Amino acid sequence: MRILATFDGSKLSEATLATLSMMADLPTAEFTFLGIADEPHGRRQHPPAERPAEVIPQANAVLVDIPEPKFAENKGQAVERRRAQLNDYLQDLAGKLPKGARVRIQTEISSDAADTIIACAAEHHVDVIVMATHSRGPLAQALLGSTTAKVVRSGAAPVLLVHPKAE
After folding, report:
1. E-assigned strands of 9-153?
2. Is 65 within the bounds of a domain?
3. How many domains does the chain divide into?
4. pTM higher than 0.85, yes or no?
């Protein structure tokens, strides 16, 4: 049985671990732990215009324009750093399953978590998707949409919803 478990880094999403541990007892259980993070955004900083040093005759001093510091990393480096953090997080979660559980780790950087989950389910031909439900009220869900609702409606695979309070 191929099981896709989704995690967003929240304690709510980790509420599925007890259910996943029970599923690990199935003889054919194979897990894909999917971690999704938003694409990193940063302010673009333009290098300061080159200005010559100014001499102030009265003070016998030189005024020097010190350039602003540049970003410590570019966008590609930020994405790779975030992927590495997600990978470490998912490896830690996988370690909480019973010994011998077969777990594949997959990290994605995406602005649409639902589409990413649906695509991953199709790619790995999963038998079930396990997700935590964040229990938004109907008004908030109608206004904001819901990743869980979109995945359920997609029909990509059956979805097992775990309510954090039930755990």
Report:
1. 30-37, 54-56, 61-63, 102-109, 128-132
2. no
3. 1
4. no
